[in-house]
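Retro notes, item 3 of 5
We never archived the inputs for the S-adenosylmethionine complex last cycle. Fixing that now. Sequence and ligand:
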Amino acid sequence: MEFKEKFLQKYSSLTDIDLFIEFSLKDLCKSIRVNTLKISVKELKKRMNCYEFRQVPWCKEGFFVKGERTDLGNLREHQLGFYYIQESASMIPPIVLNPKVGDIVLDACASPGSKTTQMAAMMHNEGIIVANDIKDDRIRALSTNLQRCGVSNVVLTKSWAESITMKFDKILLDAPCSGTGTIRKSLKTIKIWNPNMYKKLAGAQKGLISHCFDILRENGTMVYSTCSISPEENEEVVNFLLQKYENARLEEISLNIKRSNPVLESKGEILSKDIKKCLRIWPQDNDTSGFFVAKIRKD
Ligand SMILES: C[S@@+](CC[C@H](N)C(=O)[O-])C[C@H]1O[C@@H](n2cnc3c(N)ncnc32)[C@H](O)[C@@H]1O
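Structure as it came back at the time:
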């Protein structure tokens, strides 16, 4: 697999590019999150005792799983909704948002629902989650996953997130992105990569983050996340929000995870020093996908 020259040039200044390539081409360890709405961790481990479970350090219901069968999506326990096949780094945003029983939460770009189902479990199926997405086929997958997982505190909506007017205590904006952190899941990402692909995406992400901040209640919390490694889709988007709103404030993210320094200068522009509170992880940091998470508070 050949990485494009411009891609290598761009990222060599941000990380150890040889290590990045090595990990981006390595198989990703399969991981699941136990759906505690239906079964306890102990009970699932007992049922799947021919599998080796290795704890995901930052998520107590998350496990790297190894066993004879790799088609985890075809097992009876999966069909019964006892677990969700979820990349370990993708378990981070709900943990950072920390929705509680009784919160009114928006999952602005929710399909296919890995994080909606995780939040529903964290909320013990109480409170309300509005799970929204714009694409029909993805809404269908989301609906199936909610039913399979026994989720009952979710209202499903199909709309542009930018048109939602209701106010929320907590918002998860797991934004549409280039997916450059997930090369290990699909090599297609690197084939279609081009140096200009961020422009349109970053414009959409800035629109989404601004609107979601507008509909966040005072003293509310919003988590912005992507599975992209590009500063244009991450640090620059968060920096844009901080510049636009005086009452937007970044909060520290404390998690048991190896992290890299966020990018504090992009294309010659010095970004807010608070950006260092964001969580940037490269695939080689924890042997996962690459991910970016920002925790934002509205004063
Ligand atoms: C990164 S995926 C979300 C993954 C999901 N949060 C999960 O963990 O399973 C981004 C989603 O945003 C949806 N989307 C893109 N633009 C949108 C918009 N303006 N409003 C609502 N949904 C949008 C896409 O259809 C896609 O399903």
